[in-house]
Amino acid sequence: xxxxxxxxxxxxxxxxxxxxxxxxxxxxxxxxxxxxxxxxxxxxxxxxxxxxxxxxxxxxxxxxxxxxxxxxxxxxxxxxxxxxxxxxxxxxxxxxxxxxxxxxxxxxxxxxxxxxxxxxxxxxxxxxxxxxxxxxxxxxxxxxxxxxxxxxxxxxxxxxxxxxxxxxxxxxxxxxxxxxxxxxxxxxxxxxxxxxxxxxxxxxxxxxxxxxxxxxxxxxxxxxxxxxxxxxxxxxxxxxxxxxxxxxxxxxxxxxxxxxxxxxxxxxxxxxxxxxxxxxxxxxxxxxxxxxxxxxxxxxxxxxxxxxxxxxxxxxxxxxxxxxxxxxxxxxxxxxxxxxxxxxxxxxxxxxxxxxxxxxxxxxxxxxxxxxxxxxxxxxxxxxxxxxxxxxxxxxxxxxxxxxxxxxxxxxxxxxxxxxxxxxxxxxxxxxxxx
Length: 435
Fold this sequence. Notes:
This protein is 29% helix and 16% strand. The protein is an alpha/beta fold. It has two domains: 3-252, no CATH class; 295-434. It is globular.
């Protein structure tokens, strides 16, 4: 009985029903080339030379693929609830740019090309990962008899364009037990391996069931993924290294080391910062000392009507704009307000906004597109200093900001008000000053 069997209380082999892949009889040159690339990926995974983001219970939440390519180049999703037809639909939306985050990711091949997972896990070579998908009883999913389902997997090569270059990123999707996949990827190797980033999805919640049923699911989720639960016990039993960063709910009570990489209101994180010392303390990243065409300041101070007075224009969310009220924002500063929905039809008589207030659609756009849109507005008005509240774009776009800093343009001074320390960590090296 292996360690996971002991923790879950199942005999080995009780649910060894993962997908068996038929051997390839005829392979054309394109497929052979693809096989070589995937075998190299398998070798890198076994040797620990890839930066891996391991997402347990994330379903089809593609946010890490758009947000964390500066932290990882292989994204392993493991969720026993996912069906293959739903995955194909989710992949189509992902590469067509229909998700809620970021630009579309691109693939070199159609998403129906499925030999990759076979090459990755069942190749006879020394560095094959072995089968990663195994179904087990998972009470935290609220799904009965999961062990009777057949596991499956897929591996896709995607590209994300950041900083003027395309980053190759691998998506490995596994329908199976997260604990089994973690064990086989990181613990059953000749090396002591750990993911660069461990993300743990939130607990199941159902609005149409009694509160005690949701409480029971919460308990099962904590029993599986908490530091005192099965995943934490598995790491301690193997004396395994911890991930470099952790993005998970505080309810799981993981130790203060590894540092938290928490995004406010996502994955159950409430802190919204990175604690770079491993003890919930903060050390500023080192700013960029190289001379540039523009000056960038990162500040923890919130964007308020008072701080807005020092800039020619400010970019503010609807929520923050409405929180202070229209009358409190300065009249001598251009207020660029986020437009979150289609404007209403013209009123009778038509509403005429003040000359220093405009609404602009900025959501779900890459950082450089947002900055160009703002710069065009500033060029029309002769404005050279801008303050932006919060992060527009994604966490992995710091390279784009560093490139923009070197370009000649209308905006000479940019102040970014970050209230999330994680964003400060990401963008710090592209700034002249961290305040």
